[in-house]
């Protein structure tokens, strides 16, 4: 039984990372209707920025602060330069543009920092909290705490600030948002900046576990897609719950289902995506809008 | 002798349309400060396009001035910040948000928090039904309630100019009458200048001082509302009802 609980805890640690990236995906999708395939690569690039500053001798938290600022600015810049010109284009165009961005960012990171793996320090201390035969590593606790914090800050932003209300208005109806005086373009850029920042957090959390290299986020992105699909592509809370469920499901399947083992674990998100799309396309937390004619 | 108040909103030789399709062919009119102006005319005459050109949703040529400030060429959000509140066709409600959030969004550009709070109370005064539904999702309101919400949202801007596009659309006659009554009292109590586009000419003429009849993108008749209402010929040919 303790073994099972142990697996669940490990799964939640992994899941929190998927949740972080899924949050970034959901943010952009909610505002722009775009599924940003480049989200993982942007997170990877941000992580390299953090590495670069640490390599130059800055302490972890200082490097992180700079990285988040750079990511926010970079996300806004990408919206202005890459996304704005194709705003309102059909979905397929958007998919191609973000896939193009994926390839570009991936190649750029390889060009700047090479494809050789780099060590990335873990900001959390080694060791574990033990309770009832279950050991929860401090890094796992740290990841859960950080994702919880990000989630809480986003909640405060959206529910309790004017900017957040404006962002939700733009997500609901950009034309009406303009009519009440909201600068929609600026708000969309803000959304991209925010998503890039949240993505950067997930990149920095995952790097110590995976080693830093340009293809680091590929697998994580697939899990994040599963998490966002499961939770509902419009629901930040759903993204977090979805991430945790996917993480736990993946770990349990790997541990207890012989055919899955560690080789087929990556198949778990695919199964989750398929089942959710078949049974509940809007996801667990996706809201169907109430509308009276 | 015209005073600045007589020429509060000035539209001169306004041409507008969508892409290649020209809809307005040189519309000119003026609205005095604190007046209600009705734009009447059949479907497809360009009434909605006129309002959209005023608020920046479609591009126009010519001149539009509000209190001396040019509006043409400004995007809708900039026009809104100049104090123009537009209740568009379809009401422009933020359906997934709550009633209260919709109202607060009306005051998005304002920084005078205390006054916004007071205006929220004022809007509740005009529309008591909204007060009961503040925490409810706006999409769950009935058509009449949504139109009241749209009007309330527009009032939250403390607009200098209020543009109403077919407020009666899809509403029961009794609700429509109530709504026009509220527009009238808003105009009387706050001296808000109103341009209302309506198919229901009878109601619109009831609250308007001046009226213009638009047909295929041109103004074919202008005058004091009561004269237009009294003109049987006009009534039959343009307004589609018998006096």
UniProtKB/TrEMBL annotation, chain A:
TM regions (residue ranges): 12-38, 58-82, 94-116, 136-158, 188-210, 216-233, 240-260, 266-285
InterPro entries reported for this sequence: ABC_transp_permease, BCAA_transport_permease
Record-linked CDD domains: TM_PBP1_LivH_like (cd06582)
Main localisation: membrane
Swiss-Prot/TrEMBL keywords: Amino-acid transport, Cell membrane, Membrane, Transmembrane, Transmembrane helix, Transport
GO biological process, one term: amino acid transport
The keyword Transmembrane belongs to this UniProt entry's keyword annotation: yes
GO molecular function: transmembrane transporter activity
Pfam families associated with the record: BPD_transp_2
Bilayer disposition of the protein: Multi-pass membrane protein
Recorded superkingdom: Bacteria
Compartment(s) where it occurs, according to its Swiss-Prot or TrEMBL record: Cell membrane
Gene Ontology CC annotation, any one: plasma membrane
Family: Belongs to the binding-protein-dependent transport system permease family. LivHM subfamily.
Name of the protein in its database record: Amino acid/amide ABC transporter membrane protein 1, HAAT family
Native source species: Thermomonospora echinospora
Automatic annotation (TrEMBL), chain B:
GO-annotated biological processes: L-amino acid transport
CDD domains assigned: ABC_TM1139_LivF_branched
Keyword Transcription regulation (UniProt): no
GO MF annotations in UniProt: ATP binding; ATP hydrolysis activity; branched-chain amino acid transmembrane transporter activity
ATP-binding recorded as keyword: yes
Pfam families reported for this sequence: ABC_tran
PROSITE patterns linked to this entry: ABC_TRANSPORTER_1 (PS00211), ABC_TRANSPORTER_2 (PS50893)
Superkingdom as given in the UniProt entry: Bacteria
Keywords, alphabetical: Amino-acid transport, ATP-binding, Nucleotide-binding, Transport
Signal peptide: none
Domain annotation ABC transporter: ranges: 9-241
Family: Belongs to the ABC transporter superfamily.
Protein name (record): Amino acid/amide ABC transporter ATP-binding protein 2, HAAT family
Organism: Thermomonospora echinospora
């Amino acid at each position: 039984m303790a073994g099972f609980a142990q697996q669940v805890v490990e799964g939640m640690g992994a899941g929190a990372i998927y949740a972080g990236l899924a949050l970034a995906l959901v943010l952009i999708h909610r505002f722009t209707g775009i599924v940003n395939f480049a989200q993982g690569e942007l997170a990877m690039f941000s992580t390299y920025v953090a590495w670069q500053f640490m390599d130059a001798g800055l302490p972890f938290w200082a490097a992180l602060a700079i990285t988040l600022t750079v990511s926010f600015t970079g996300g806004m810049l990408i919206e202005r330069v890459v996304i704005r010109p194709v705003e309102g284009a059909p979905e397929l165009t958007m998919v191609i543009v973000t896939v193009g961005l994926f390839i570009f960012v991936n190649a750029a990171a390889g060009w700047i920092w090479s494809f050789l793996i780099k060590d990335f320090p873990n900001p959390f201390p080694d060791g574990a909290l033990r309770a009832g035969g279950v050991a929860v590593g401090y890094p796992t606790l740290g990841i859960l705490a950080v994702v919880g914090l990000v989630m809480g800050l986003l909640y405060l932003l959206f529910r309790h600030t004017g900017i957040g209300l404006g962002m939700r208005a733009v997500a609901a109806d950009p034309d009406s948002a303009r009519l009440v005086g909201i600068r929609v373009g600026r708000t969309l850029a803000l959304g991209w900046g925010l998503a890039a920042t949240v993505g950067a957090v997930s990149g920095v959390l995952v790097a110590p576990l995976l080693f830093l290299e340009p293809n680091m986020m590929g697998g994580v992105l697939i899990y994040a897609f599963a998490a966002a699909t499961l939770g509902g592509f419009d629901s930040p809370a759903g993204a977090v719950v979805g991430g945790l469920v996917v993480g736990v499901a993946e770990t349990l399947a790997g541990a207890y289902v012989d055919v899955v083992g560690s080789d087929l674990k990556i198949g778990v998100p695919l199964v989750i995506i398929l089942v959710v799309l078949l049974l509940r396309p809007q996801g667990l937390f996706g809201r169907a809008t109430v509308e009276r004619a | 002798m015209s005073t600045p108040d007589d020429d509060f909103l000035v539209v001169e030789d306004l041409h507008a349309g969508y892409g290649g399709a020209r809809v307005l062919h040189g519309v000119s009119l003026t609205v005095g400060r604190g007046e209600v102006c009705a734009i009447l005319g059949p479907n497809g005459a360009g009434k909605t396009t006129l309002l959209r050109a005023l608020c920046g949703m479609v591009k126009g040529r010519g001149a539009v001035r509000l209190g001396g400030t040019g509006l043409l060429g400004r995007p809708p959000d900039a026009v809104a910040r100049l104090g123009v509140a537009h209740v568009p066709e379809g009401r422009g409600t933020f359906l997934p948000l709550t009633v209260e959030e919709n109202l607060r969004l009306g005051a998005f550009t304002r920084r005078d928090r205390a006054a916004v709070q007071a205006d929220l109370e004022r809007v509740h005064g005009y529309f008591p039904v909204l007060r009961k539904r503040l925490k409810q999702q706006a999409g769950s309101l009935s058509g009449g309630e949504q139109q009241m919400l749209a009007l309330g949202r527009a009032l939250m801007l403390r607009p200098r100019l209020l543009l109403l596009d077919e407020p009666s659309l899809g509403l029961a006659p009794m609700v429509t009458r109530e709504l026009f009554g509220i527009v009238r009292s808003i105009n009387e109590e706050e001296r808000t200048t109103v341009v209302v586009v309506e198919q229901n000419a009878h109601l619109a003429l009831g609250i308007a001082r001046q009226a213009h009849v638009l047909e295929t993108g041109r103004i074919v008749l202008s005058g004091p509302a009561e004269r237009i209402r009294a003109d049987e010929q006009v009534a039959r040919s343009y307004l589609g009802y018998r006096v």
